[in-house]
Amino acid sequence: FLFLLLPLLPLPLPLPLPLLPLLLLLTQGQSVSQPEHFVSIQEGQPILLPCIYETAYLSPTLYWYEQLPHQGPQLMLSNYDFANKETEKHKKGFSPKAGGKFFNLTKTSAELRDSAVYFCILSGTVT
Predict the structure, then answer these.
(1) Neighbouring residues of 58: CB distance < 8 A, sequence distance ≥ 6
(2) What is the per-residue pLDDT across 88-110, written as a single tens digit (0 to 9) for each?
(3) What is the pLDDT, as a whole number, of residue 55?
(4) Rounded to two decimals, what is the model's pTM?
(5) What's the whole-number mean pLDDT along residues 54-79?
(6) Measured between alpha carbons, how far is 67 from 79 in angstroms, rounded to an integer?
(7) Cβ proximity of 119 and 8 under 8 Å
(8) InterPro entries of this UniProt entry (predicted)?
(9) Domain range for residue 8?
(10) pLDDT tens digits, residue range 16-62?
């Protein structure tokens, strides 16, 4: 079995008071949701890791990171790479499926080496 974690990213509390208004300003209207927080898949089965987002950004950039045990997160791919057809950056056979307000990560056949924590991150500029 593979164990794929899609963590909630809680904020460390308590936040210093001067940072709280800035944080609220920066995150207003922006959200990323990974509805599945824990996925268990048998080897050979397809993988679908959903990432749903809401944003005021006109051209948001979305990233998928993978974190293996005892290591820091590593960038797997972004929608910028995908739009520019830089498919060589897609790691370990994963591919993005993008549209509307989602940027899902998929793979046709799960491998044991896919056991990790996966993060979907949103970035962009409001204009």
Answers:
(1) 124, 125, 126, 127
(2) 445 788 988 888 889 999 999 99
(3) 86
(4) 0.69
(5) 87
(6) 19
(7) no
(8) Ig-like_dom, Ig-like_dom_sf, Ig-like_fold, Ig_V-set, TCR_variable_region
(9) 2-123
(10) 434 333 333 344 567 787 777 778 888 899 999 999 898 887 788 88
Number of domains in the chain: 1
Residue whose tokens read 């990213």: 9
- Decide if 90 contacts 83 (C-beta within 8 A): no
Contact status, residue 107 vs residue 97, Cβ threshold 8 Å: no
**Joined tokens for residue 6:** 């899609």
Task: Report the alpha-carbon distance of residue 11 to residue 87 in Å, rounded.
Answer: 33
Name the CA dihedral angle for 9, 14, 16, 21, rounded to a multiple of 10 degrees.
Answer: 60
What is the per-residue pLDDT for 44? Answer: 92
By residue count, the chain amounts to 127
DSSP labels, 51-117: -EEE-S-SS-EEEEEEE-TTS--EEEEEHHHHHTT-GGG--TT-EEEEETTEEEEEESS--GGG-EE
**Cβ–Cβ under 8 Å, residues 107 and 41:** no
